[in-house]
Amino acid sequence: MGTRRLSKEQFLRFYREMIRIREFENEAIELAKMNLTRAAIHTYNGEEAIAAGVCAHLTEEDFITSTHRGHGHCIAKGADLKRMFAELMARSTGYCKGKGGSMHIADMEIGMLGANGIVGGGIPIAVGAAFGTKYKGGKNVTVCFFGDGAANEGTFHESVNFASVMKLPIIFVCENNQWAISTSVKKSCNIECISDRAAGYGIEGITVDGNDIEEVYEKFGQAAEKVRKGGGPILMEMKTYRMAGHYFGDNENYRSREEVNAWKERCPIRHVKEILIREFGVSEEELAAAEREERTAVLAASEAAKADPEPEAEDLRNDLYNDTFADIEWKPFVK
Predict the structure, then answer these.
(1) Residue 123, C-beta contacts closer than 8 angstroms, at least 6 positions apart
(2) Closest CA to 140 of 75, 237, 230
(3) Predicted pLDDT at 330
(4) pLDDT of residue 159
(5) Sheet harboring 234-239: ordered strands across?
(6) How far apart are CA 240 and CA 268, in angstroms?
């Protein structure tokens, strides 16, 4: 116990948050099975320690941008579960009034600038936010989440280069979950660590075990402190693994069961549970009670969202950047 850098209370808090994310994703899968979701569902199972450990250092004034696999980021940043479920089920009470779906949740009030269905699409948005912070003399930091696949997009290289030149207050967090849809990172990158690319842009690169909440929390905290003090951008690579397929329904025929099962043994939630029991004397019953509480809260949010209304046909005219289509008579599609 003496070697642990986090307290019992911190581990318990992280355990609850990671369980909350896992339960949300499991419920999202159930909703997809019932055909209640209106877009593809990309789950965050297996990567919960990254969102929890990173966002623990952030306030509502700090910004994040997310990916198509963004539910965990939203929850860790403080998003409302019911509004998230409502968005997944295309309800008018959702974060984007039911028009965005799973991959486009945003909440400006908590600094969540949006998930993004375009691979690498959130990276330049994050850089823009960080540029705005520096321009206005602010002290907040921007965190840009993206995957190993996005690290090979032009938006990544252009954005990191610009952030380096301008010394922007941004931390690029690459969630290297080993697979970009069905392409292994071993086949798409000729380097051991994506963070090694930082040297080419004159910034610091750090590689972290993304399944170890203690390491994520500590290393990101150190990085955030440097960036807040004007040290410029940092590229962090969090090595992890997505336990489910790329999306709900993925046949996963591109990877072996042995590989998946080996990574499941390194589940970040399981890791924290073992520490709490073995080193802090927390009982199985206490952890089971916490799990039930989180599951109950998630299911309650899902049930409440189910009862909310879907958008009306005339809502198609709202929330547009221009009124080109305002005078068109919209008629509901009827088979």
Answers:
(1) 65, 144, 146, 150, 153, 155, 156, 159, 172
(2) 230
(3) 59
(4) 98
(5) 63-65, 142-147, 170-176, 234-239, 204-209
(6) 9
